[in-house]
Amino acid sequence: MTVSSHKKVFKQLKVKPPKLKKYIKHNAPKERSCGKALKPCTRCGRLGGHINKYNLGLCRQCFRQIATKIGFKKYS
Question: What separation in angstroms does the CA of 48 have from each of 27, 35, 67?
Fold first, then answer.
């Protein structure tokens, strides 16, 4: 289903509340219990490249930006 048709269906169902409720129930994203989408970055909200070691909860890009501020040293 394309974005335009999704919006069109939603617009048509606004006048039919019971059918809209059923449509939302069956098309809403399900709650996750595991996986990549469960732990977003605490700083920016990205889902990929998550570093959870030492309970950081950051993505790799945010970790690179603030690593020196939180006490990590870069060894070349």
Answer: 24, 11, 18
Question: Both 23 and 41 in a single domain?
Answer: no
In this prediction the pTM is 0.56
Per-10-residue mean pLDDT of the chain, 76 residues long, equals: 62 87 82 83 90 90 93 86
In order of 1, 5, 21, the CA distances from 30 in angstroms are 18, 22, 15
d(CA 70, CA 61): 14
37 and 73 together in one domain:
yes
- Tell me how many domains the chain contains: 2
Are 26 and 49 part of one and the same domain? no
- The reply to whether 19 and 38 lie within a common domain is no
